[in-house]
Every structure is written in C-alpha cells, then in structure tokens.
Known about the structure:
homodimer, alpha/beta, Aminopeptidase, 8-stranded mixed β-sheet, elongated
Amino acid sequence: MKKLLFALLVLGFSVDSFSQAEDSIFLKRISDYILVNGKSYDDLRVLTKQVGARLSGSAGMYKAETWGLKTLQAAGADNAWLQECLVPHWVRGGKDEVTALYKNSKKSLNVLALGNSNSSGKLLTKEVIEIKNFAELEAKKNAVKDKIVFYNYPFNNAFISTFLAYRDAGVYRSQGPSRAAKYGAAGVIVRSMSHSTDNNPHTGATAYNDSFPKIPAVAIGLQDADWLSNQLKNTTVSVGLSTHGKFLPDTIGHNVIGELKGTEFPNEYITIGGHLDSWDAAEGAHDDGAGCVQTIEILRAFKALGYKPKRTIRFVLFANEENGLRGGNKYADEAKAKGEKHIFALESDAGGFTPIGFGVSASETQFEKISSWKSLLLPYSPAEIRRGGGGADIGPLARTQGTPVAGLSPDSQRYFDYHHAANDVFENVNKRELQLGAINMAALVYLVDKYGL
Amino acid sequence: MKKLLFALLVLGFSVDSFSQAEDSIFLKRISDYILVNGKSYDDLRVLTKQVGARLSGSAGMYKAETWGLKTLQAAGADNAWLQECLVPHWVRGGKDEVTALYKNSKKSLNVLALGNSNSSGKLLTKEVIEIKNFAELEAKKNAVKDKIVFYNYPFNNAFISTFLAYRDAGVYRSQGPSRAAKYGAAGVIVRSMSHSTDNNPHTGATAYNDSFPKIPAVAIGLQDADWLSNQLKNTTVSVGLSTHGKFLPDTIGHNVIGELKGTEFPNEYITIGGHLDSWDAAEGAHDDGAGCVQTIEILRAFKALGYKPKRTIRFVLFANEENGLRGGNKYADEAKAKGEKHIFALESDAGGFTPIGFGVSASETQFEKISSWKSLLLPYSPAEIRRGGGGADIGPLARTQGTPVAGLSPDSQRYFDYHHAANDVFENVNKRELQLGAINMAALVYLVDKYGL
C-alpha cells in the first residue's frame, strides 16, 4: 500500500486526495474482509438458533448476555464487560387465544398479546366492535362499553418508507388499549403493525395509562383482521379472549460492552450498537440480532485489519430496548456520571437489509461533515445521508450530553413483514445484506474516528 | 389538481417548476395506484403457480403466452397480439444425476444439467479432476482426458454488485464444457453461479463450440461443490453422471405485445418489457416473471389514471430470452422492416427487488436528459442513473436502430440466490419490492413519453 500511496503523491495528488485515496483503500479492505471472511452471519445463526428469544428478564436474556460477552472477547475487544441495570420482567404467561363466535360457528384467530399487557383473568367472552380510528372511537364512545374494541387501522401502503406507515399506525398499539378502556371497553384487538401478505400477528409494547383499567390487548394477523372485519359487516361477532400477561418484579439485566482503546484521544468515545433483547415470540433475527452481530463484526474487522483507533470505540449490545429502554438509559447515565465525552454514536436497529444510507441527528456542521464523506461511502450503498435518525438506545446519549447520533438506514420494504412476529427468524436474513450493513457502519465509524466530528 | 396548479402559478412558479410540480403530482398518483391497488403480485402468483415453468417450446410457454395476451387485454391495451417467431426447443429429458463414488462410499450430489447441454447417453462413470480456473485447465490439459472436469471457480464475494461476480464466473458455465472437451474431457460439473448459503444447483445456458465434442455438463449446488472439493484433497473420486438433454426441432413461439396508441406522435414507439420464458426447473418468479408483471402493471396504472401517452407505448413479454433471444431479435427485425421509429426501450430482467435506479445505454445528451429527472424519481428510489445497461431483449433494438435503452437496476444482493434455481418461486418475491420496481419504470416511461429523448 505504501508504494501505491507514494505513487499517488508523486503524481501530484494533494494531501486531501492523498487522504481520500488512503481512506478509499482502507474502506475497500474493510469491505473485502467482511464480505469474504466475515462471521456476522454465523454469529447470527448462533444467537437466533442456540440462544433464541431473549426478552428482558427471561432465561434467554441471560444466555444472550453470556454469548455476547464471549463473542466480543473472541472478536478482539481490549476490554469487555457487563454493565448492570434493572430491567422490567414481563411474561406472556401462557398461550394467547381469541376465538370468534358467529352464526353458530367458531373460528380460532391468530393473535399474540401485546407486550406489557395484562392477563384477561378468566376467559373473557364479549361482543366485538370494530373501530377504524380514534376519531371513530370518540364518535362511538358510548357504544364500546363492555365490548372488545377491534382497532382495524391498516398500514398505509402509499408510504414509500414503511417506517412512516409504522409511525402512522403505531399509536393504536401503544395508546389504543387505554383509550378504549377510558370508555369502558373490556379488551382490545389491534390489527398488526404490518403490510405482510401472511397471517402472523405482530406483538410489541403497549403503554397503559394509569388513569384507566388495564384491559387485555392482543395483536391479530392481517388475514384474520380482514376476515373479522368482513364478518362484522353482516353479523354480530363475539370473541372468547384469553391472555395471561403480567409483570414480575424488576430484575437484573446487563448491557454487554466491548471496547477498543483509543491511541490518540482515549477519552473521546464513539459508540456502535444494537439491542440484545427481543420479543419472546421469535428469534429476533432482524430485530435486533442483526444490529448486534453487525456491531461485533466491525470490532472483528478493525482488529483483523490492525486498525488502531484514535478514539476509544465501544461496541455495545444494549439491554431492554423493547419494553423499557433501561439499557440505553443506564449507558448514558453512567457515561455522564464518569464524565465520559461521547463524540458520536451509531445504532443499527432497522433490520439486516441492504443499506441505503444513514439518518443523522447532529448539528448542521456535523451533518455537513458526514455528508462530505458521501463519495467514500458510495461504493458500498447509495449513501443517502438524511437529517433525523439515530436509535432508541443511543437517544439517551444525545439527550444527556448532546452526542451526535446516527442510525443505519436499511431498505425498509420487508422489515414489517417480520417485525415482532414469529417469522423474524434467521432464515429471513440474507447474508450479504447483513454484511453490507456492517460495512457501511464500519466505514462511517472509521471516518468519524479519523477526522472527528 | 387544477386548483393546485393554478395556485402554484399564481405564486410565481415558472413554467419549468409548473411542469415539475405537475410531473411530481402525476408520479405520486402512479405510486399510490400501484402500492394501493396494484395487481402485479396477484398476476405473479398466477404466472408462477398456475402457469409455472415456461421454457421455450414447452407446454408452459404456450400457457404463458395465452395468459399474457389475456392479461394485457384485461389491463386495458388498445391492441394486443402475438408476434410469431421460431424458438429453440431444448428438453431436459429426464432427471439429471451425479453420484460420487469414493472410499467405498456413495453420495448423490445435487445437480442440474446446463441448459442446451447434451445427454450423457448411458451412465458415464469417470474420475473427477478439479480445475480452479481456465489457467489451471491449460496447465493440466494433459490430465483431463477421459475425466469429468469439475470447475470449482467461486463467485467473488468481494464485488458489491453481484452481477460483477456473475460476469466474472459465468464463462465457466458458457465456455467451460467445450474448453474441457477440447482436451478430451468426458463431462463437466460446474460450480453453480451463486453465493447462496443453500445447496440448490443453478442451471443456465451453456454454449458448445462446434469444433469439439459436445460433452454432458451439469451445475452443482455450492454445498456439494465444497464437499467434492474437500474429498478431492484426500482421495480419488469418481462420479456416475447421467443427463438426458437434447434439442428437438425449432418450434413456434411468440412475443406477447400490448399497445397504447400515441395521441401526438403515434409513430414514435417506446417499449417496456420483460421476458416470458423461464428455465424448466422453477417458476421463474424473479427471472423474469417479475419483469413481465411489472410491465403489465404499468399499462394498468396508465389506463386507470386516464393517462393518454403522446407516443405509442408497447408492453412486451419477450419470448426465448434464456436460450436463444429469438423473441428480442424478431421484435427488432420486424420494427426495422416496418420502419418503426423506436425512441426508447426499458427492460426489467434483474429480479423483483427494491429498485436502486437505472442503467442507461444512450448518447451523452440522452443520458444527461434522463439524469436531469433524478429529483423527480428520488421519492421512489435512490435514483442512481448509471452509464451502461439495458436488457438482453431490447439489445437488438439498440443494435438495429440505435434506440437508447435502459434497464431497471434492483438491489442485486439476493438475485443469485434464486437465479435459474428451483427456489426462484413466488414466495421469494416481496410484494412491495416488486411494486416499487413497476413504479420506477412507469415514472421513467412517463417522462420519456412526455419530453422525448
């Protein structure tokens, strides 16, 4: 490489183009290493198939922490440790069931209780009322008492980014149960946050409002949602609903952290991460096994290529993103308490799909600096640098010390086919798409480490 | 819409920004129509599950032609017809088998004869010699006589675009058999053109050189290729190879064409297309069912939105791309014979994945004009407009009358997981990714129709 760089200099390249060429060569080395020798896909197989589901407080969480620590050490971390934090301990408690009763017939519907939701106690048999949106709920507030409210607000397919559809519909999952309870509803069925063509229900956290009864709530698969809506056009439908969710006392969980010590500015920190927890119904392959194994892959690539970072780089598998964010909060709190200066944080928590670029929340100057690296990133993705973005787990760093944050933006078309559903499994992750995400993250972190922000 | 346009004018927008706003609004209408009401995914289900495989000359080809004509008519074509052409009629003739014989053991390997390849006649039992590349073949040319040459040239994973890996490795499939036959080899096993993690063999056309014996040739799944290579490190391996391919006489096939007549320049033609044929081993969902149903979707969207094109737009399902290109040649020949002026052609034949942009083969002026539309396309894809590209079926138009051509460029990471293999099925196509391809194609065709090239 030295010969090439010398040749470039002799040919009259400026220091800037010298740096650009050097950077370009190093990014290609990262890419080659990950695409040819990368282990993220193998890591993901172990995390999903041997560890499996890993909801906060579950045995899977502890197994995952042990796996994470060992894997970060094996990848070459200078130091690796567990950072303790209390995590909520919600359990599903049994098999969620909803049976539709109509015209002397019965049909079992494909449902999954929402995360954090309560047990129905005994089997709850009630009439169903379909509610298209909150405006309709308000209009029909006198009609929902003692009924099961069926929120049938569909994903808006017209959005190009599926995350916009999620944001649009997501309020029915988070706020729907308490808003129905306010008017006396006995339970809630929410159309799954998805536009998949299958019938898998998609769980995810709901947030009860303490002012109202905490009624049981389930997500329903899209085919069954359409079926139920069609039935309700012609007839009365009751359902027998049975859920078993409850909170056990908070328990001990951990962020799993690996570190490469900075050689020039060891007291400046860059954090890369994903979250280690998943919902209980699946393997959490895209959400967020992908982000975890990409994070570890970057550490492995830096070590394998002999890269000695200027700044201290932290590789963090965060605890409890799904239903509490205790890991992200703990990490930021401890950073603040220790006076650590965090100059940048990057998260991957939107699936292991082909990367499109990054969403960045930073000052205008920092945003411009990151944008100026676009040509270096372009060989590895469309390198769209957009304003706004980051990640749930690194948000607390931004809030507590103004750290500029970014989130990897993968192609979003398939994410909500799998998100929080039983089909979020290893088989639905493509090896090269996963690796390309790691390459783009490694490239951005390398540039931030080298040039600062 | 008129009110909005009027308001924009009043606000002082120039004619250019007026046009831009009008275009932007129409492209959004196309996008909304396809994402919300599109039928391409349903069409693909019928084409793959009810029609199925459709190799040139097979019963499936005729079924597909009938389906295509009916579907173009139903989508609203002003005219739709079959354009006759002779097509080659290669048949697989039976189940391809390769059994490895080693250390008193046997193992059946997962293989598929290459398209256009010959029967082995009787079971051929010969020793295997592994050949890494053509340089090694030349070095070992005296050692291959009467053996089965096993070309084990892997896809280069370091390429970001998988089509570069395909181009790099593809010569072993196309030229490998005859180059081995030149030195007396009895048969050939080619490592599949893929970097998938499964064991499906990937077929595809080979091209015999008439100067040498036309020896039987199969593709082998990657896991079995690695297994065979490992065995050969330690021991001698023979295989029993049996294939049954042959050519029947050329037969009659058809391009299936739908047309919307131009209102201002009816004698200027724009062609959009994909190819209707597929290999026999699978449903041809990505290759190229996707391109066919996207083509029909664009016609349907234009009709539904009341779009009256200035130029005549042809929606073409080409015959015989896989092993002859007779359909594309016939289309260009007839266009030339009739003096049709083809101002642009666009093909989708790289899978139904999320689009990245277009590859364009055109004059510098035309390329710049297409590039100037990038901001209009950006809401629907990264809109990367790259030099070079088109499609096999529209290549003859470019050659015979210099028509500028473009090819939709979808994300390429998964394409060679499925290409020409048994898993190129409906289930591996994502509805929204498929639709986004159609949206981007429709947008480009709309702009070319409106502004010319």
